[in-house]
Amino acid sequence: MMRISQLSTASRVPIPTIKYYLREGLLPAGEQTSATRAEYGERHVRRLRLIRALLEVGRLPIASIRKVIAAVDDENLSMHHVLGTAHYAIAPVVELHAADEEWTRARAEADGLIGDLGWQVDPDAPTRDELAQAILTLSQLGMPATGEVLRSYAEVAIGLVTEHEINSIPIDGPREAAVEALVIGTVVYGRVLDVMRRLAQESASARVFGISYD
Amino acid sequence: MMRISQLSTASRVPIPTIKYYLREGLLPAGEQTSATRAEYGERHVRRLRLIRALLEVGRLPIASIRKVIAAVDDENLSMHHVLGTAHYAIAPVVELHAADEEWTRARAEADGLIGDLGWQVDPDAPTRDELAQAILTLSQLGMPATGEVLRSYAEVAIGLVTEHEINSIPIDGPREAAVEALVIGTVVYGRVLDVMRRLAQESASARVFGISYD
Known about the structure:
mainly alpha, DNA binding (chains A, B), DNA-binding (chains A, B), DNA-binding transcription factor activity (chains A, B), MerR HTH family regulatory protein (chains A, B)
């Protein structure tokens, strides 16, 4: 057990920020050992890591973080559903589309691709709409969105997830630790992949246009 | 040449939205053929595609879109620098770090990795800070951020970019068309990769936790 100053040192989060998270209900209160003193534990250190990952790396608004944390804390939710809650929180909102022919076709293409890949995805998952929207935009812009191109992205994604991300989850340990690792990994490795892609683009563009920084 | 109603049909953007883009200076004015009538061309159709991609798929604020469009329109800028402007616009802001030992180490690791990969990246590119931040966060969270893991993400990223993204740019056509394709590809394929990764995670999680939607 530790005092708030020790929690601050252990977590590298400043005391005023910790107090803000306590007021916002993101961090559970410490154990009150006297009228002016509360003690914190390992659980608080871990929870601060989760909040920082969602806030600083995931850039989620406080309201979304609160939802993710409620899911992490709800022991009746399966880990799979906690991940789903995190996914919904980090996903961009897909605007409702008129159920026109084009949208129906894009959505059918998204569902067909997921089915062909043999992926287990909830029929109601909003990620299906996100994929359909990307397919629709690419085709409206006249850019390649063939099954072959999409499949390349899909193969790369499943490769990274199964090789690195799912394996780093300590599923044999306490539920809370596993859930937190799952949620943090979702956010942080997503950021890694995104920045790597932009670095790769800058490098590929430099080559195409004959620019060197060496 | 076409009237605003035809531009709306050709671009699938409603007339009030077109007028809004005109007022915001995102879309260049049409050619005034009488006091009450302006004519639009292919250039306006293409520009509307670019705006929609940045706004709806990239979710950039209007101010950022204005910067990207100014770069696209500036014929003195090389295409490589226009891409850089687009990259900076879609990148999350990396907060300034205290130049402490940990940050210096993470940044050196990021630079070392980019160097080892032989990538051509501007020494001042903010993406270097983004990568350093991701490395720092992963190591503070006790999650794997070894060179090996990062290299897997890097290889995947460069593979997708060189196989699909750079090749879809019509670099032999007019500059404006090439630049617009470059910028749109950056934003839209980034979205495709991001949603594929979350779909793959949902599927991998369903398998690990024994859930089937079949």
